[in-house]
Specification:
It is a single chain. By secondary structure, this protein is mainly alpha-helical. It is built from nine helices and no strands.
Length: about 180
């Protein structure tokens, strides 16, 4: 996966540019500068706030330590940047009313759709469940649910494969002849 090395490379480029600018800037009289070490925490914060993948990493870490409100906050920042992974996860938070967010199935469905439209398998499966059950303000539509499960299954998503298998078993969906 190339995502992490690019984030790290970008971080060091930003750090070098800011350090050079800081070291080569004349400060006003009476203002003392201690050097580049003063900038490191701010550079880290800026880099983390601008990168959706870095936000997702931080949100995942907050989730693992059971700091659900912080995870929700960080996923929201990433989702607002259009990140499909964060949109799908934030949809789960709204579906379950987790992380201090209200239980809001319509918002969950909206977020799942945003993620699904970008090809996120988790968003596709969760949106499919909502169509299958008629939740989140969506009509009950087993054909649309099967389509979404198939999209996720084709990406190797186990839940999409299992849900599609249940549709096959119960005769709710038949594969196209071909």
């Amino acid at each position: 996966m190339l995502r992490r090395p690019l984030v790290i490379t970008a971080f060091f480029i930003v750090a070098a540019v800011l350090w050079w600018g800081y070291e080569n800037t004349r400060l006003p009289p009476g203002v003392e500068g201690k050097g580049a070490q003063d900038w490191v925490p701010w550079i880290s914060l800026a880099a983390a706030q601008t990168s959706a993948s870095a936000l997702n990493d931080q949100a995942d870490a907050a989730y693992r330590r059971k700091d659900y409100p912080e995870a929700a906050r960080l996923y929201r920042l990433s989702a607002d940047q259009g990140n499909a992974y964060a949109q799908a996860i934030l949809g789960i938070f709204y579906e379950q009313g987790r992380g201090g967010l209200p239980k809001a199935e319509r918002e969950a469905a909206r977020l799942y759709r945003l993620a699904a439209d970008q090809g996120n398998a988790g968003g596709q499966v969760n949106l499919g469940v909502f169509y299958e059950q008629g939740r989140g303000g969506l009509p009950k539509d087993e054909r649309e649910a099967a389509r979404l499960y198939r999209l996720a299954a084709d990406q190797g998503n186990a839940q999409g494969q299992a849900n599609l298998g249940v549709f096959y078993r119960d005769g709710l969906w038949q594969p196209a002849e071909g």
